[in-house]
Amino acid sequence: MESRIRELLGELDRLVPVDKAQVILYDDGNPPGQLPFCASKEGFLRFGLTFMLAAFATSAGRGSNGGEKVVLDLDPIYRSDSNVEFLCERVTAMPQEGDRRRPHHLPNIIGGPLILLVVWCFLVGFWSLLKSIGARF
Fold it and tell me: Where are the domains of the chain?
């Protein structure tokens, strides 16, 4: 069955023209759960096909849910004003409901305190420089 699916996906990949496929997907502060999506007919087909091909794509490392990271190549169909990126992970068993882990979430957690530390170090260094040149407060 898997070989037949690969065969069909290969045929669709050959049949759906990339040059006519265009997708605009953007997040500009839309209400939660709403993500504007605009595409040509070929864009819809290519977009769906890209996700189906991800089922067989080579792994790009381990994901945060215990699966494999999968890179989707949407650049050929994305218009330049698209600003949504998909962080995809292929798993053999789905996480428990409510136990979702977002890929690449750790930098967001440590980013805020790290920025505060850098600003604090800058201010201390600047204060020390002013003090060394004789500035009075």
Answer: 2-90, 105-137
